[in-house]
UniProtKB/TrEMBL annotation:
Superkingdom classification of source: Bacteria
Keywords: Coiled coil
PANTHER family (UniProt xref): TRANSPOSASE FOR INSERTION SEQUENCE ELEMENT IS1111A, TRANSPOSASE FOR INSERTION SEQUENCE ELEMENT IS1547
InterPro entries: Transp_IS110-like_N, Transpos_IS110, Transposase_20
Species of the source: Luteococcus japonicus
Occurrences of domain Transposase IS110-like N-terminal (ranges): 12-156
A single BP term in Gene Ontology: DNA transposition
Domain Transposase IS116/IS110/IS902 C-terminal: 230-311
Keyword Cell membrane: no
Name under which the protein is recorded: Transposase
GO molecular function, one term: DNA binding
Amino acid sequence: MTIIPEPHHHVAGIDSHTETIHIAVITATGLEVDDHEFTTTTTGYRKAVAWLVEHGPIAAVGIEGTSSYGIGITAALRAAGITVIEVNRTRPAERRKHGKTDRLDAYRAARCVISGEAATHPKHDSIEPLRALLVTRRSANKALQACWRQIRSLLVNAPATLRDKYRQTSRDKLIRHLAASRPDQIHDAAQALTMRALRSLARRHQFLHDELVDLEAQLDELTTTKNPGLRAMHGVGPVTAAVLLVTAGDNPARLATPAGFAALCGTSPIPVSSGKTQRHRLSRGGDRQANWALHQIVKVRMVHDQRTRDYRDKHLDAGWTLAAVYRALKRAVAREVFRALTGNCEIPNYTDLRPARQAKKLTLTHAAQHFNVWPAHISEIELGKRRDDTLAQNYREWLQAA
């Protein structure tokens, strides 16, 4: 949305940092009016808003870093009813040409609003708790993987008797045994020290695993509450849903078209044609976490969705590479996700399945054996935790005929 200020209105720009924000005000024609620096505290934000209001009507404020250093002043301006526009950081070529200071960056942010270069509304800060959980889960998952690699490395260099004891042990069983071990009862000093280190790593692994389970449960509850349509999509779990919600923000109206959302996720093909050569290349931009989420959804559907497998086989037979099939499927999933984010996605209702099965006095095992799936699969469909419209319809017809 391009801001066209009235002649008597002003436009402001803000360059945000950890401890300070620099605000600059210009006229509707781009003339410099005034600039000032404030601290990034509650008092500082209140003074900044009051200082802006003193300069007369403010059409809009362009801010660098609305989801990082500028999140506090963004919330304060919104609370005061002032329009906020997200501004990208200064380009390296522009820095080399004009230099870079907080003052210059603030004026540049204001001019970006007038020129229309900056026209996107920032994300609402209500999405930040979800982002915080995602960041915490990501770090815990990395620590868990590092812990497991350290356990395996120590076992490789452990004494032969200790290594042989756990050589054929599965991962979960190995963690339990190491965590419950008693190094003090080992007479060999070197082996006792190695065992003590392994026990410490195993207990850390258990702690991190429990933390991940707790975080995913919170993500499951939050994402289902925020967007049940997105969670109802086949292949979308709590983590992938959280990543996509953070990418879109808590105000998906800022996403204008499915093509724009695909570009945001790095799944839109980029034309690189020249002369007689007409072709496209893969986009390497966009939010890579969102791109990863779309990739995970496609991977799940490759295994559990017959339509996706049929599409893959058809295009592989036509000479496509598997990478090209994945790119096309990710683009299709991006369109489906966009509909869910903007509220145009149908949510399947499976609440009638469990009461119907219980009324016929049938067990989950009977239903699972009939459809050749695991009982947990049927249970997840009944509870609405898994979307499989074809199986749900066949299951409903089977219950009616039973």
